[in-house]
Amino acid sequence: MTVPSASQQSSQRASRLALGSILVAVVVLGLKFLAYLLTDSVALYSDALESIINVAAAVAAFIALRVAARPADANHPYGHTKAEYFSAVAEGVLIVLAAAAIMREALPVLMNPAPPEGGTGLVGLGVNLGASALNALWATVLLRHGRTLRSPALLADGRHVMSDVVTSVGVLVGVLAARLTGLHWLDPLLAMLVALNILWSGWLLVRDSVGGLMDAAVDTDTERRIRAAMSTAGVGALEMHDLRTRHAGSLTFIEFHMVVPGDMTVTEAHAICDRLEDAIRETTPDCSINIHVEPADKAKHHGVLVL
């Protein structure tokens, strides 16, 4: 019996979470459309339309995670981990389409506000509140596991679902206020605000995913930990320079040059490289490290000095 590696286990967990997202999104979609039918509120209708995007985004995340889990091959020697970023980009595009649909529904009602046919619709508001509570619980799960598994797809899905929760709560408060005060223009106005909010959410998702596709470096804290590990574990080397890092989904690529005395043997230099790799992996799991060894005359006298 073959035991899956830690990386394979992480991929399997991420795929199961993405599959769970599809199920939760479908349930929430049904509840929100039921709430709309019970209230005849255009704001709740816009909230339900956004839930269609949640379903599509969950499906895209599941597909992307399945692709990202594939091992490296001849055509993709660095693996398929960047596939996760494409689901976030696709989600951003879908969000824009949802916002356009919401605005199309809300604008005519805003220009000619009228009391809805659904009465106070307290039952419908309660149904929508239940859907929002389910979304909040699942968003918390996605965000926690997304950080643990370092999965851009899960984090993007979790952030989007959490933004949906904030939007839904705002809509519920506004719709209730519109029913109690008789200011019926509040309903379509809130729908317009929903559209603007999800556009902002879409922009954040696209921005973060494009950073990954463009090989953005790791954050400052991660780089500081990598440099500290290099400095303490590189005993025997003279210096290390030209450190370069980038993310590809859950995988981090790290490469740098290591300067050693010119008369050092290959075996000795290789032992230093092994120590460096072990130390760096303790601070940055799931990383691919490439070290270029150079003789002393290649020193640049800057970068990471060995303690």
Please supply descriptive tags for the structure shown above.
single chain; 307 residues; alpha+beta; Alpha-lytic protease prodomain-like; 2 domains; four-stranded mixed sheet; 4 strands; elongated; Cadmium transporter; transport; membrane; Cation_efflux_TM; transmembrane
Q: How would you characterize this protein structure?
A:
There is one protein chain. By secondary structure, the chain is an alpha+beta fold. It folds into 2 domains: 6-213, Cation efflux protein transmembrane domain (Alpha-lytic protease prodomain-like, Up-down Bundle), CATH 1.20.1510; 220-305, Cation efflux protein, cytoplasmic domain (Alpha-Beta Plaits, 2-Layer Sandwich), CATH 3.30.70.1350. It contains 8 helices and 4 strands, in the order αααααααββαββ. The chain has helices at residues 6-39, 42-68, 83-111, 122-149, 152-181, 186-213, 220-233, 266-283, and strands spanning 239-248, 251-259, 287-294, 304-305. Helix 2 (42-68) packs parallel to helix 6. The chain is elongated.
Task: Describe the structure in brief.
The protein has 307 residues and is α+β, with helices and mostly antiparallel strands.
**CATH architecture classification name of the largest domain:** Up-down Bundle
Share in helix = 55-70%
**What would the average pLDDT be, to the nearest integer?**
81
Task: Determine the CATH superfamily of the largest domain.
Answer: Cation efflux protein transmembrane domain
Structural class: alpha+beta
User: Could you tell me the strand content as a percent range?
Assistant: 5-15%
* Oligomer description: single chain
Strand order of the largest sheet: 3-2-1-4
Q: Determine the N-to-C terminus distance.
A: 45 Å
Q: Name the helix and strand elements from N-terminus to C-terminus, one letter apiece.
A: HHHHHHHEEHEE
The parts where pLDDT drops under 50 for at least 5 residues are: none
Radius of gyration (Å): 25 Å
Described by strand count, sense and barrel closure, the largest sheet is: 4 strands, mixed
Strand segment tally: 4
